[in-house]
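Input set for joint prediction.
Command: fold jointly, output tokens.
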Amino acid sequence: MTNHLPTIDRRRPARRLGLLAGIGLALILAAAPARAEGDPVAGEAIYKRCGGCHSIDRNRVGPKHEGLFGRKAGSVPGFDYSKAMRQSGIVWDDATLDRFLENPRAVVPGTKMTYAGVKDAQERADLIAYLKQATKPAAP
Amino acid sequence: MTEIQATSIIAPRRTLLLRGGQALLSASAIAILAGCENMAATHAANAASTEDDVQILNTALGLEYEGIAAYQVGAESGLLSKPVLDIAVAFQGHHKEHATALTDAVRKLGGKPVTPMASYEFPVDQLKSETDVIRFAAGLEQGAASAYYGAIPAFGNRDLAQAAASIMADEAMHWAVLRHALGENPVPSAFVS
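tokens >
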């Protein structure tokens, strides 16, 4: 029986693991959908869905979005976040926003954000493109 | 559209709305939300789901409190003509009814209802005419309809989702009336999102 086993399995386990890891990473990268290019004009229309709770420049039922990119989640002064959001460890960028916006309550269970999510990848890309433009901090 | 035109358009609708619409709009939602004691028992074995539903209800409640405060700002602005003021007060009354029903539902599910914020950062410096006030209110109503639309699929309890849909329909009607008052297409598309 052992005669039929490839010798690499027994003699070079580290190399085998490396190979497997490489193949796994390649598969993951191949499977990961490329993020769509966002259209900020279309994203502005989608942002109206957020307008029940959010505003760019003022805290409401949800926190304001000004200065969103690069900000640690749960850190806008004066807004009463859930413990879950404060402790999420998320820093907002294209990738984290894309994941969160798809299904907020799955990504941060316990968040006060009760929106079911933007399920369409293109709509998320458009929304993120708009947010990137609209949330730039005001010049001092 | 001028402010006078807006008023003349909104006035005939006021009569219809005040005749019977106010009671009809929220009756089903109240009936459904009033049944939450049974829901609480049903969900005893699924505490996480109930906790999530309470969170959703509380977010909605926060939204309703903001709407009540916003209409108060509009009503006290001195910018609204009598017919438009009457509409604003009627719509504020709907939001108060929503808030009462949501508060009761949160309590019946064992949660603690949120309370109104101490203050709201409304863009009052931008409200200089009746049209400005109507546009501000229309934006809030559109946002409220969207918020309920986004929250409905998140409810674990389908009865609560149905009640939220009833409130969403009311917010959408407010939005349509206010858009009409602004001279805009009251129903700009076949779908709300």
